[in-house]
Design a protein that fits this description.
Length: 497
């Protein structure tokens, strides 16, 4: 729409010469009084500057003039309403373009701006133009932002200020000025044309959705500003970012045709947040199985809890890949281990529970436990603040009674510890020949610290044409031919990673 395609006659209301019954002293809706029976209005023919015009005497605080005609508000269209006025007697009022925004079944869209900038005559006989631009988006030069809700408007003037003035008004002109706001390339659609406001606070989900629906292959422009999207959103259109977006932590932002890390950086303005939201999109969309970081090195300020990407789920069993990138931890105190020393009681009758644990609110699930009788690789799987109990991965030995326990929560750059289960129950199949295994670690930059692994479950998967089938927990048969305190068991490289 726009670009002067729609003829002016479609927008412009009847002239005053066509009858004052077409003009209301109210909002212009059905049932409002018309000016044809008003003692304050008269039609002047042959006016020296205007030809036929309306002469109106101001008698109330806000003297309204509205057309009964419904002027359509079309998609991607900006309208300019204008006329000239001339004072002939009395006090000088303020004069402004005004309108009444309407929707289906006559509903009034009261929250939009319905009054334009006011001008005040300074002399009798002075010709003064009054104008305002009405449109969907908050653009430079738009006086009345109506968004996408109104379907039509009743337009005219408001006279404000002191009563008693007499003013002559030229017939209103309404014209399509969309060309003033269209981008040089018509293959780009500005989201502001669908009501988006980039103040960082106004909800814009509906505006983005409407623009995406109307794009029809065009790219969506996100202009300067920060656009708040109040809930998860999936967009089919490609996007061009000059501004940024902001979403709640739990809300995915899925770009079906722009799923690349560079676009997410443009969308969120910085790499760490961009990675979190791109990873969240990866886990919440079935369109992609990998996130390519494009060879970037991403500085991380604090551990990234990857379970937040799918916060309503404790497990994720579909294979997804993060590749072609590097992470490094920026130096700060966020990487220091959280160490809590708490006094608790152990009873062999309930071998995986610590009772009456003080300071339990500061103990984090996943923390390894140290103390008398605590074996290697014993972790607190959960803590119950109300009961003061901590659940352990394994039983303790010769630890009955009360003692001090140390709980250490390590910091992980990419923290998967909030998941109960990852990559289980899948079917892996290689075509065009066998492959060695289904998982691997790129050690060209660094390896994993296997001493800090815990609670990794990698089981229940079916493998076809895979040479080495990995699993954890791994069941093996081992024959120990001689007594020894240390047994060496060959896992045949079947443990994952």
């Amino acid at each position: 729409m726009g670009l002067g395609i729609i003829e002016a006659a479609r927008f412009t209301p009847p002239t005053f010469a066509e009858g004052l019954e077409n003009w209301s002293s109210g909002d212009g809706v059905a049932g409002d009084p018309g000016y044809d029976l008003s003692p304050d209005a008269s039609l002047v023919m042959g006016e020296s500057d205007f030809g036929a015009c309306l002469e109106l005497r101001k008698t109330i605080e806000v003297q309204k003039l509205r057309s009964f005609t419904q002027t359509p508000m079309l998609k991607e269209t900006y309208l300019r309403v204008r006329c000239r006025v001339k004072m002939i007697s009395g006090h000088f009022p303020g004069v402004c373009i005004a309108g009444w925004a309407g929707a289906a079944l006559g509903a009034h869209i009261a929250q939009v701006t319905q009054i334009g900038p006011s001008v005040v005559p300074t002399a009798y006989g002075q010709l003064l133009e009054v104008s305002a631009i009405i449109g969907l988006g908050l653009r430079d030069g738009v006086d009345m932002v109506w968004g996408a809700s109104p379907d039509y408007g009743h337009f005219g003037l408001d006279l404000t200020g002191q009563n008693g003035g007499g003013i002559r008004i030229e017939s209103l002109q309404i014209e399509d000025v969309s060309a003033l706001f269209m981008l040089q390339s018509t293959n780009i659609l500005d989201i502001r044309d669908y009501g988006a406001i980039g103040d960082g606070e106004t909800p814009n989900y509906d505006a983005f959705s409407a623009a995406d629906e109307a794009a029809a292959g065009r790219r969506l422009l996100v202009p300067e500003g920060q656009f708040y999207i109040e809930k998860g959103l999936t967009l089919r259109s490609k996007l061009l970012f000059r501004g940024t977006v902001k979403l709640p932590v739990s809300a995915p932002f899925v770009l079906q045709n722009n799923f690349d890390f560079t676009t997410y950086i443009d969308a969120f303005g910085e790499e760490e947040l961009a990675f979190e939201k791109a990873f969240q999109a990866l886990l919440n969309s079935g369109d992609y199985d990998a996130l390519d970081l494009g060879g970037r090195t991403i500085g991380v300020n604090a551990p990234i809890d990857l379970q937040k990407a799918v916060s309503t789920r404790q497990g994720y069993a579909v294979r997804r890949v993060i590749r072609n990138g590097e992470f490094y931890a920026r130096h700060n105190t966020a990487w220091e281990n959280d160490i809590v020393i708490s006094r608790g009681t152990y009873a062999p009758s309930n071998p995986k529970t610590l009772y009456n644990v003080n300071n339990i609110a500061n103990i984090q699930a996943g923390s390894p436990v140290e103390g008398n009788g605590v074996g290697r690789e014993i972790y607190a799987t959960s803590v119950d603040i109300n009961s003061g109990e901590a659940t352990l991965t394994e039983a303790l030995y010769d630890a009955e009674g009360t003692q001090d326990f140390t709980f250490t929560r390590f910091k992980y750059m990419l923290d998967f510890s909030s998941f109960d289960q990852l990559v289980n129950g899948n079917t892996f199949r290689a075509i065009n020949g066998a492959i060695d295994r289904i998982e691997a670690v790129d050690t060209s930059l660094s390896d994993l610290d296997r001493e800090r692994f815990f609670q990794i479950q990698f089981q229940g998967n079916n493998s076809n044409n895979i040479t080495t089938q990995s699993a954890n927990h791994l069941r093996l048969t081992h024959h120990q031919n001689s007594a020894a305190t240390l047994w060496t068991i060959d896992t045949a490289q079947r443990l994952p990673f």
